[in-house]
Amino acid sequence: MKRTFEVTPWHVITHELKPENKRLQESMTSLGNGNMGMRGFFEEDYSGDTLQGIYLGGVWFPDKTRVGWWKNGYPKYFGKVINAINFIKLNVLINGEPIDLATDTFTDFEMDLDMKQSRLTRSFTVIKGAQKVGFKFERFISAAQKELSAIRLTVTNQGDLSVHVTFKSALDADVQNEDANYDERFWDILKTNATADTGSIVAITKENPFGTPRFTVGMKMTNVADFPADAVKNNSKEEVVNQFSGDLAPKASTQLVKRVVVLTSRDYQTQAELESAMDKLSAHVTAISYDDLFAKHAQIWADRWEKSDVEIEGDTGAQQGIRFNLYQLFSTYYGEDSRLNIGPKGFTGEKYGGATYWDTEAFAVPVYLGITDPKVTRNLLMYRYQQLDGAYHNAREQGLKGALFPMVTFDGIECHNEWEITFEEIHRNGDIAFAIFNYTRYTGDKSYVLNEGSKVLTEISRFWADRVHFSERNQKYMIHGVTGPDEYENNVDNNWYTNYLAQWTLRYTLQILGEVSDEVAQKLNVSDAEKKQWQDIVDRMYLPADKKLGIFVQHDGFLDKDIKPVSSIPADQLPINQHWSWDHILRSPYIKQGDVLQGIWDFIDDFTPAQKKANFDFYEPLTVHESSLSAAIHSILAADLHYEDKAVEMYERTARLDLDDYNNDTDDGLHITSMTGSWLAIVQGFAGMRVHDDQLHFKPFLPKKWTSYQFRVLFRGRSIQVHVDGDGAKLTLLSGDPIEVELNGEKKQL
C-alpha cells in the first residue's frame, strides 16, 4: 500500500515529485473523454523514467502471437492498443536551456487532477542560476468536442533579471509501445504540414500480415502565443514544430495556448475527407477562447456529477475513492459510441492490450444502469451484437457450434494468447447473456432482448449445447477443461460458476424464445429438437456441491486440496502472484477472486441466507483478492450477511485500490473496470439495493466510520435520491412519475 497523493474530496493532488513514483503519478492523473485519453506524463521532455502514453478509442494493431508450442485454434495475433502520436509535446527553454524536472532544481511543485471539472494542472518554479521562473500547465480533453484536447501554459519570471523564453510546441510521431513484442514503431507518416503557428500530421498504422484494418489518424495543432513565432525548419519527417520566443521582464508573465484536434479513419472514408474535416474543426475551435472551450467541457461534467455523485460524510478517504473511480470510469466510457467499450486499463496504460474483457458485462453494466441513461448500457449490448461474426469465428476455431464471444477483443475476433484463459475461461459467454437479462430486468425495456438480444442468446445457447458432454456414468451434463473467474485454477472440470451460467443461459433463452415475435422466431430458426436438447441440459446439468459443508464446490477436486486459510500464508509471501511459482499457485487452495461467490452475487435473490452464509464463510478466508475485481463482490455479500465490518473493509480496498496502490501494480495503468466496485459496494452492499418483481428494494446500513452517505439512482424514468444517516434512510423522488419501492421490507410510495 502506497499513498502518493493527498486525501481530498474532489482532487487528486500532490506536492511531491519523486522519481520512484513518477509512473504511479502518471497513472493517477490520466485524462480521457471516451474517444481518447492519456496518462499524466509531462508536456515537456523528462529524462527520467516515464511511461508516455496517448491512446485513441478503437485504434489498435495486431501484435504477432508468440508461443513456444502452437496449438490448433490459437489466435494468430494479440490485439493491442498502440501509443498515438504525442500531440501534447511542449518544450520550454530558459536562456537556451531546456527545462527538465529530472535534472533541474525546482520548488513549489504541485500536480492537481480536478475531478469535478476534469482538468489536470501542474505548477512549479525552476531555478537556473540567477533565474527563477514559474510554470503552470493546464490540460483537458474535451467532453463537449470529442476530437479536442487543449493546453494552456503560463510562464512567470519570478526573478529580478530579464529572461529569454522559447516555446517549442510539437506533434511527435516518434513513439513506441512498451507492451509489444518487438519494441516496434507503429506509424507510417503520410503527410506533414506546418505554418508559423499551426502544424499537422497524417499517419497510418503500418501494414500487418493478418488483414486487420489499418487506421489513419490526422492531428492538427494551433498555437496562440504572446511571443512572436520563429522561423522553424522541420527536418524530421516524424515531428512538426512551431516555435515562439521572446524576452520576459522581471515579474511579467506570458502564455501559450495549444489546441489539438485528433481525427481517425474510424469516422471518415478517405484521407481527403479526414483532412478536410480536420482543417474545418481546427478553425472552429481556434475561433473559440480557451476559457469558453473549457466552460462547455466543465458543464458536461457538472451534468454527469449531478446524476451520479456519491456523497460521504465522515470519511474523506472513502469520499475521494468513490469519486476517483467514477471519474476515471466516465473518462473511459460514457456510451456515445457503440463501437467502443471499456478496456481494463482504459486510456491509462498499455497492459491488457486496451481491449474489451468480460468485466464490462459483469461489473460495468450494473453501474451504468444506475447512473446513466439506458441508451449507454444498450450501446454496450449492441457492441456484442455487432461482433457476432467474430464470435462465430471463435467457436468454429474450436470446432464448436454457435457463438463464442472473445475473452479479449477489438473487433469480435479473439486476440488473447494464453490458452488457459482464451479458450477455457468460457464463462464469459454466460456473463454476456446475464448482462442482457440485467438490462431487461432493470429498465423494463424488452425491445433489445426480443430482437438483437434474442439472436445473441440463441447463438450462445448453441455454443453451450455443443460444449457440454453427457456423462453416462452420472447421467448428468458436464463441462470439462475450463477456467472459472478464479484464474489461479486452470483446466478444471465442472467449474460450478461456468456450469451454473450455462444452465441458466439455456433456461433464459428458452423463456425468451417463447416471447419473441413470429418474424424473429423464423429468423432464429431454433428447431423443436434443439429446444428439447436445451431443456434436457437444463434439467440434468451437473452442479458440484458438498452437502456436509453446505456449499457449492468450486470445481471437481477442489476439496481435495490442502485447505488452509490465507491467514496461514507468511506475510512476506504475499501477494502470492509475486512470490510463488505458477505451479505452486495452481496446487494451492487460494482463490484470486470470487468464483462461486461471483455466481451467488449475480443471482443473489435465488439463494437462501443459509446458502449464502455457508459459501461466504468457506470461500472468503481462502481468497487472496489479487484480482482488482475481487473486493466488490465480497463487500456486497458481506453486507447482505450483515458482516458489516468485513463489508466496509472490502469497500475500502476496492475504493482506494489504485489511489493507495494496494496490489503494487498501478504504475502501468489504472484498473478501470474494477472501479465499478466502489459504487456497487455502496449501492448494492451498504444500501442493499435490489431489483426484482419490477421493483426497487433497499435495506441500508450506515458504516460505523461514516456520518452519512447519499447517492442517486436512475430507474425507469425516475431519479431517486437515497440518504442514509444515524436516523435511518430517506428516499426522495427527484423527478419522474410516482413510484412504489420497498424499504426494509415495507412498501413506500414516492
Automatic annotation (TrEMBL):
Domain of life according to the entry: Bacteria
Glycoside hydrolase family 65 central catalytic domain sequence ranges: 323-679
A GO MF label: hydrolase activity
Keywords of the record: Hydrolase
Glycoside hydrolase family 65 N-terminal domain span: 14-266
Boundaries of every Glycoside hydrolase family 65 C-terminal domain copy: 689-749
UniProt key word Hydrolase: yes
Keyword Hydrolase belongs to the record: yes
Classification via NCBIfam families: PRK13807.1
Recorded family membership: Belongs to the glycosyl hydrolase 65 family.
Name of the protein in its database record: Glycoside hydrolase family 65 protein
Taxonomic source organism: Secundilactobacillus hailunensis
